[in-house]
Amino acid sequence: MEDNALKKFTTAKFLSFALGFFGLQFAWQMRIILSGPVTENLGASPFIFGLIWLAGPFTGMVVQPIIGALSDKTTSRFGRRRPYLLGGALLSALALWALPNSEIITNTIFSTLGICIHPLAALCFAAVMIWILDACVNIAQGPYRALVPDVVPQEQHSVANSYISLAIGLGSVVAAGTSPFLKWAFNYQMTISAQFIMAALAFTLGMVWTCMMIKEHKYEPKTAEVKENFNFIQSLKDFFALSPEVGKICWMQFFTWIGNMCMMIYFTQYAVHTVFGVPDLSGVNEVIKSSYDAQMLSGTNFSSICFAIFNLVCFLVAIPIGIISVKAGNKKVHIVSMLSMALAFIGMAFCHDVKVVAILMGLSGIGWASICALPFAMLSQYIKPGTEGSVMGIFNIFIAGPQVFVCTLVSWFINKCSFSVLDGVNYHWEYTFLIGAACLVTACIIASRVKDKTETDV
Questions:
Q1: Helix locations, 217-353, DSSP H
Q2: What are the two backbone dihedrals, phi and then psi, of residue 452, each rounded to the nearest 5 degrees?
Q3: CA-derived radius of gyration, the chain
Q4: 325 Cβ contact partners less than 8 Å away, ≥ 6 residues apart
Q5: Is-contact 23 207, C-beta < 8 A?
Q6: Alpha-carbon torsion 381, 21, 86, 57, what sign?
Q7: Average pLDDT, stretch 169-197?
Q8: Which H or E run contains 133?
Q9: Averaging pLDDT over each range in 6-20, 307-321, 410-424, 437-451, which range is the top one?
Q10: What's the rounded Cα separation, in Å, for the pair 209 and 82?
């Protein structure tokens, strides 16, 4: 569709557009914060926890390219993207309800069938729910990103992606901050199950609102497009043929997400085990586990507070970053933002004071706001009309792929970095921040070599 056929978005329309991503990020933030405590309580070691996290990258690499290509050619009465947005949200809601209840569900199933309950049955069920949840989030996320070039004029792409960053920040703040706030204000501790149910409702209702308020333009594919099947290899070739700069953007994104996920995946474990000194509880008896209940709860709540601060900063700077990038350029703003995150990571690797860690998490939120918006704005300059879903799906490989590295090699490395404590062992979770900082600096170096389309056209 030609840009001149797209009407400019108002602030109200941008907010309605972003509300679905608010719900998506709300659900994703709960998965980030609470999947560690849930799986560790069921017996997952650091390495097993990393393997369970492989759900995200594997489903992202497989699901998003396929769903993106399918959504490009979808001609349903509900639109091209909306069926995937709604379907992903509804299926995610079911997984969000089941995940924290894994032990109850498996016990009920095994008892009904009259089968002896295996010690790892609940952990395996929880892992499956995480995989389903991640797959469904990816089903919604790729077509959602493709909505930007679908319905927003080219000159507003940076602002549209900044509103998505705003939604990501606000959704994460509310998700992470609700439980600690209720504990602080009313001395009421939400259960993990209640927090997951809250996430399921937020995801579903937010996505329904966006689908109701944002109308897609009628799409009628050419005859050749209808007959053409999805060919991943050809789509990948077409993707890199868009411009030599696309490859640089992809490598930038690759190292960015190694760095970013070193924090996202392991921060709760770092907060609980490094900042609050709780030993690894995956292999200890129930008596020792119960003796650390208070510290475990304090560490988990602290993690939630830090993620709330991290995402609050993202929320506050998201729109200013979009506005500044229009004037100063996406590349320059993105490099400065990522360097701020790298500095924060280095600080957290060496200082474990709760106040300092909270401040540094806020600083790293500047980088997160940029990561959620500017790489997509940089890429969108090269997207051809009609291929938005496919391009965003392939681009997601360079977000999901790095997570495989973090979930396997980094978790294996941490698993090897153990030390003895009073009630067993603990791990140097802070090492993940040093790895993350090095990768973010590498991403900045690559970003400095990316040319804007205006430069390449000269």
A1: 223-227, 232-240, 244-269, 286-291, 293-328, 330-350
A2: -65, 160
A3: 22
A4: 158, 162, 333, 334, 374, 377
A5: yes
A6: positive
A7: 89
A8: helix 121-151
A9: 437-451
A10: 11
Q: Please enumerate, as own/partner, the contacts of 218-224 that have beta carbons within 8 Å and a separation of 24 or more.
A: 219/75, 219/79, 219/80, 220/75, 221/73, 221/75, 221/386
Helix (H) or strand (E) holding 419: strand 418-421
Domain contains 4: no
Domain that holds residue 274: 10-216+225-457
**449: in domain:** yes
CA 29 to chain centre: 7
Give pTM, 2 decimals.
0.75
142 neighbors 67 (Cβ within 8 angstroms):
yes
8 A C-beta contact, residue 9 and residue 119: no
| CATH code at position 377 | 1.20.1250.20
Q: Following DSSP, what letter does each residue of 12-63 receive, concatenated?
A: HHHHHHHHHHHHHHHHHHHHHHHHHHHHHHTT--HHHHHHHTTHHHHHHHHH
Instruction: Give the SS3 label for residue 85.
Output: helix
CA contacts within 13 A on the Cβ side of 127 = 16
3 found inside a domain: no
Average pLDDT of the residues of the chain: 85
The two tokens of residue 211 are 């689908």
Determine the Cα–Cα distance for residues 327 and 317; give it in Å rounded to an integer. 16
Asked if residue 42 is part of any domain, the answer here is yes
Statement: residue 63 has pLDDT above 80 = no
Greater model confidence, 401 or 439 = 439
- Nearest Cα residue to 425 out of 273, 289, 276: 273
DSSP per position, 306-339:
HHHHHHHHHHHHHHHHHHHHHHH-HHHHHHHHHH
Look at strands 418-421 and 424-427 and give their pairing.
Answer: antiparallel
Q: How many domains does the chain have?
A: 1
Token pair of 400, please? 């999901």
Highest average pLDDT, of 216-220, 275-279, 399-403, 454-458, comes from: 275-279
- Kindly state the DSSP code that residue 273 receives in the 8-state scheme: I
Considering Cα of 235, then 238, then 242, then 246, what sign does the dihedral take?
positive
Which phi and psi angles does 425 have, rounded to 5°? -130, 165
Full DSSP string of 385-406: TT-HHHHHHHHTHHHHHHHHHI
Percentage of the chain exceeding pLDDT 90:
36
